[in-house]
Amino acid sequence: MISTSVTIVGNDHGFDDEQTPMRLAFRWMQNITIFEADVWVGHGATIKAGITVGKGSVIAAGAIVTKNVEPYSIVAGNPARVIKRRFSDGAIERYDRMLYEGRLMPSQERA
């Protein structure tokens, strides 16, 4: 899920070549940004191009993401830092089964 006003910014301008004015110093690189399964990105977050956002992670509103986000982590701030993990290891195993195998979590199963 990606909220409104989220931007993925490119690392597409060079500033280290004294022979080229900055307005002409484009870097024509393709930086692929990857959002794995079941990610939630809050309003106004900015993500640097080429980042991998790990499965089940949450990016807080307004966060500035400059590094890869580990699976099942919650990140916030500028630059974004891990503020906590979403689940314990055991809960991650159950969640992965539900996510990839279509099995319900125990709290969702009916008798």
Structural description of this entry:
Helices cover 12% and strands 23% of the residues. The protein contains 1 helix and 9 strands; from the N terminus they run βββββββββα. It has one helix spanning 89-101, and strands spanning 7-9, 34-35, 40-41, 46-48, 52-53, 58-59, 64-65, 73-76, 81-85. It has a 4-stranded mixed beta sheet, with no helix packed on it. The longest helix is centred in the C-terminal third of the chain and has 13 residues, at 89-101. It is elongated, with a radius of gyration of 18 Å.
Please describe the topology of this protein.
Layout: E1 7-9, E2 34-35, E3 40-41, E4 46-48, E5 52-53, E6 58-59, E7 64-65, E8 73-76, E9 81-85, H1 89-101
Q: How would you characterize the largest beta sheet? A: 4 strands, mixed
In terms of DSSP E residues, the strand content is 15-25%
How big is the Rg? Answer: 18 Å
Total count of strands: 9
> Judging from the principal axes of the Cα atoms, what is the shape?
elongated
- Helical run tally: 1
Mean pLDDT score: 87
Distance between the termini: 31 Å
Query: What's the arrangement of strands in the largest beta sheet?
Result: 3-6-8-9
Helix content: 10-25%
Class computed from helices, strands and strand pairing: alpha/beta
How would you spell out the order of helices and strands? EEEEEEEEEH
- Poorly predicted ranges: none
